[in-house]
Design brief:
Distance between the termini: 15 Å
Oligomer: single chain
Strand content: 25-35%
Strand order of the largest sheet: 5-4-13-14-15-12-16
Bound molecules: flavin-adenine dinucleotide
GO molecular function, one term: FAD binding
Number of strands: 18
Organism: Stackebrandtia endophytica
Structural class: alpha/beta
CATH architecture of one domain: 3-Layer(bba) Sandwich
Protein name: 2-polyprenyl-6-methoxyphenol hydroxylase-like FAD-dependent oxidoreductase
CATH topology of one domain: FAD/NAD(P)-binding domain
């Protein structure tokens, strides 16, 4: 890692014009810090407009809370937090659910934690990027780099030159495919699938999320506060990857129904809303496993480079911390991408390795292998309100939570 405020900081900054693909979490955090450090970021985002409030709940753990604080956004993020305070964890048709304190659970993973809806976070981050140029409803169709920069052609037609390009475009990154080759080379299937959709708040839920475990399957639902609606989340284990087209929502819904049709609890009610659900997400829980994230003038940040798997490994925190480190190391190297990208990779690698190990472990332990495993998980969860961190970390198989609680370098 380059020492912040190194002697190089007196020389002029090079490579100022930076194109970022993706405007969710990593993209706007990177743009915010690049602007602050004297660069000119431009963001291209495939969605036609900025995100609206909604999406799924995500976690900001220790270092990501620190980045949020340095960005001056902590009060707004605190105000928008989800306010889910309890988890009611159940298994089988009999027996009372175990009541788990969310703060105690999160405290076992990190010294600081805030849960927020991803799109609420994204809107705040977007607003913090000032006069950054946004190209909504567009995508990079071609890129070629030479010694002086990168020529980029957009789907909408025009071509432009940039000094550097950063892929912050998520698990199925377009920039990664263009610069590093097909996703299949880097995607590691964890053996589980994930589906999420919205439905009316039929139970009048406020601060309690409900979770149900059974063999090979987990179902949960919680309240999205801004819309007063529920998000239902389903995780299920399959031996092999499922065969479906990523745009065939009808088929995905039928796969989900087939995997949960014999589950009791609130599942029949949740599934009765499935056909009407507009915001439906379905994907494998897949990690992106790359040893290096830069190729010449192109680099990757967030899920694009190192997704630890959706919903299992603290991907949002990793995306925020990765974006902060990338901007900081570029600044510390005065825009020299060779030195800056190398220092960024060194700085983010320990975080990535930890989150990857945590995510892989969580994907196998969160979804029980059998009815007995489901029962055991519920019994063990009784410990959460009082257990020492070391015990839970041993049970989850990592020494740390999803993201290391190490102090971040300051670049200002
Ligand atoms: C259902 C679900 C539940 C999750 N739960 C949690 C959780 O509990 N805790 C947690 O920490 N994390 C969770 N995650 C993971 C978290 O959402 C991601 O790790 C995080 O959003 C990564 O941010 P990112 O900016 O790297 O990528 P993303 O948030 O995936 O954003 C990528 C952006 O790139 C855009 N894009 C895609 N393709 C292109 C293109 N060709 N051109 C231009 N733009 C493009 C997308 O529209 C999007 O705006 C969950 C994810 C899912 C899907």
């Amino acid at each position: 890692m380059t020492a912040p405020n190194s002697a190089a900081s007196d020389t002029p900054v090079t490579n100022r014009n930076i194109l970022i693909s993706g405007a969710s979490v990593a993209g706007p955090v990177l743009a915010h810090w690049l602007r602050r450090f004297g660069f000119h970021p431009t963001i291209v985002e495939r969605a036609p407009s900025p995100r609206k409030t909604g999406g799924h709940a995500v976690d900001l753990f220790g270092p990501a809370v620190e980045v949020t604080d340095h960005m001056g956004l902590l009060p707004q993020v605190q105000r928008l937090r989800t306010r889910t305070e309890r988890l009611a964890l159940a298994t089988g048709s009999r027996g009372r659910p175990v009541d788990i304190n969310v703060a105690a659970l999160a405290g076992l993973l990190s010294d600081k934690h805030i849960e927020i809806m991803r799109d609420d976070l994204s809107v705040l981050l977007h607003e913090s990027t000032g006069d950054t140029e946004y190209l909504f409803g567009d995508s990079i169709s071609r890129m070629s780099q030479d010694d002086d920069g990168v020529s980029v052609t957009f789907e909408s037609g025009p071509s432009r030159r940039f000094d550097l390009v950063v892929g912050a475009d998520g698990l199925h990154s377009n920039v990664r495919s263009l610069a590093f080759g097909p996703e299949s080379r880097y995607a590691r299937f964890t053996g589980a699938y994930l589906a999420v959709y919205s439905l009316p708040n039929f139970l009048g839920l406020a601060d309690t999320a409900h979770v149900y475990n059974t063999d090979g399957r987990v179902v949960a639902f919680y309240r999205a506060p801004a819309q007063d609606e529920l998000r239902a989340i389903f995780l299920f284990r399959t031996g092999d990857p499922l065969d479906y087209h990523h745009r065939d929502v009808r088929h995905q819904k039928s796969l989900l129904r087939r995997h949960f049709e014999d589950v009791e609890w609130h599942v029949p009610r949740l599934l009765s809303e499935l056909d009407a659900a507009e915001s439906f997400y379905f994907d494998s829980i897949t990690q992106i496993d790359m040893d290096a994230w830069s190729s010449g003038r192109v680099t990757l940040v967030g899920d694009a480079g190192y997704s630890p798997g959706p919903a299992v490994g603290g991907g949002t925190s990793l995306a925020m911390v990765g974006a902060y480190l990338l901007a900081g190391e570029l600044k510390a190297a005065n825009g020299d991408h060779v030195a800056g990208f190398a220092a960024y990779e060194d700085a983010v690698r320990p975080q990535v390795m930890n989150a990857r190990a945590f995510g892989a472990n969580a994907a196998t332990t969160l979804v029980p292998r059998s009815v007995a495993h489901a029962w055991l998980t519920v019994q063990l969860s009784r410990l959460v309100n009082a257990a020492p961190r070391s015990l839970v970390r041993r049970l989850t198989g990592t020494r740390h939570g999803p993201i290391l609680n190490t102090p971040l370098p300051r670049y200002e």
